[in-house]
Amino acid sequence: xxxxxxxxxxxxxxxxxxxxxxxxxxxxxxxxxxxxxxxxxxxxxxxxxxxxxxxxxxxxxxxxxxxxxxxxxxxxxxxxxxxxxxxxxxxxxxxxxxxxxxxxxxxxxxxxxxxxxxxxxxxxxxxxxxxxxxxxxxxxxxxxxxxxxxxxxxxxxxxxxxxxxxxxxxxxxxxxxxxxxxxxxxxxxxxxxxxxxxxxxxxxxxxxxxxxxxxxxxxxxxxxxxxxxxxxxxxxxxxxxxxxxxxxxxxxxxxxxxxxxxxxxxxxxxxxxxxxxxxxxxxxxxxxxxxxxxxxxx
Length: 298
Fold this sequence. Notes:
12 helices, 6-stranded parallel sheet, 298 residues, Rossmann fold
């Protein structure tokens, strides 16, 4: 696979659209498909090198790499059951949707049944890292297939971590997303503690940033929470889906069940499509004392 190639991106949601746009900017010819075609068209109108395609089969036919970025395993299976028959020898199917190990295994078997080269390759990161090319790939699959896919993966990610040869990528992704959800709920609760103790948030952030407890992702959430700015990077409804996948894969822990309950209440309050930061929607700073965020760039 050359440094610039033809790539089919199946799924024009927030992450798929960002991936397609980035790939087009880096010189790849991108065919973007979405179940709702208008969404793919809208992305293509504003992205160089991206063409909206009417069918998934037409998108993958002749493409050297196919990236599936769909909601769940059922959606990927429904789309690829036919489209996989259009792949040629040497093409690589990069399965980047968060589907959990069980569905990832079924999709790997679908690929093998049709002689397709398959990578179980979800990502750590959301729309902004995708646009910047700084995603972290969590890849499981044969080393030679990964080597062929690297030009495409490298255009989208700053790190390509080879974590196994089966469906370990999907397993690691569930653990990463559980940690992300749990730490976001924890940040909301600790900000409430800061409010009760009279600690301004800028001081709290400065102390964390000075030592080993800094977690840049959560430090950025402080501003989002203080500003009630919940534009989705990672939506509450998707976090709930992934926690449910985790509970299928392993016995649910009391902590993750508590995190799920908080996110479920957040979704029920109308924030299901908002960012995880919306878990903070009920917290109000003490009257008369402005809360200071200011963690942009940390």
